[in-house]
Input
Amino acid sequence: MYILGIETSCDETSVALMKDNKIIKCWTWTQIKYFQKYGGVVPNIASELHSQNLPILLNEIIDEYPDIMKKIKYIAYTSKPGLIGCLHVGRGFAETLALFFQAKLIPINHLHAHLYIAQYDEKIEWPAIGLVVSGGHTQLYYMKKNLSFEVLGETMDDAAGEVLDKIGRKMGLGYPCGAKIEKLAQKGKSKYKLNVYKNKKNLDFSFSGLKTHALQTWNKIEKNEQNIHDFAYSLQKTIVDLLVSKIELACAKYSAKTVIVGGGVAANQILRKQLKQNLKIKLLVPTKEYCTDNAAMIGFLGYFQIQNSSNK
Ligand code: KG4
Ligand code: ZN
Output
């Protein structure tokens, strides 16, 4: 069974060709360079770029895999959440292709897809605790069984990646900043104590206090090379420590057998390392390439939804 995955929720235009739950190829065009000067995504430019790029990508795929394209049976596309105009472009494109290929449409939740792709090489053991940490979301899930997603906690304000992007912008790092802060932090040490909301009783997050405190700290410090490294280290450490502690709390409460972490921030090596060190249960994190937005995760979750549907 061949599935085409389509992702357009934010600033990556991505299409993936899947055979069952295996990726044949995933094409991802990032729009990042267009948004560097704005320090963030401009929604109407992003949707315009998706509508320009999707047909070009499709032509490339048809040229490379003409025989497979004729056999597409399902089109899985990101239906939510995301920038409304961008989602609209993706859905319109998916609907047109579904008509053309006589294929079935499979709407996919982007956040659930970020979690599911973590089991590309190794299966999840249920129940699992899932954390999605991206530029737009920080959400903790209880996953009792296949395709069951219960939100346990989420951010009440900014997302973890958003804090890195916003502080990074003040530091003059452009957009996006998570990976750049990680690189700066490699030569840093824990020097600045940054306050963050740490209610140990609930599983919600709040990053706006940290954002304010980090900005105040940044404005005060002398901008020499070592201080910049130390600031990046301290900011990253504060966020990583909080994410890990919330996962530990959720695992203890729900007797989880697996922890899954997905989304762009899950590409962070320090977060991955600390999770590995701290957790006593199975940990699944996608390869870096599939942490950030991509269509393979959409096609992959689409496969599980198709398997689960009585109406195959
Ligand atoms: O999942 P994603 O590609 O897009 C959204 O759905 O938001 O995540 C992008 C976010 C950005 O905030 C970016 O700064 C962050 O992921 N990010 C990282 C790293 N790579 C990307 N954060 C920390 N460390 C990284 N290595
Ligand atoms: Zn995402």
Q: What stands out?
A: The first strand starts at residue 2 and ends at 7.
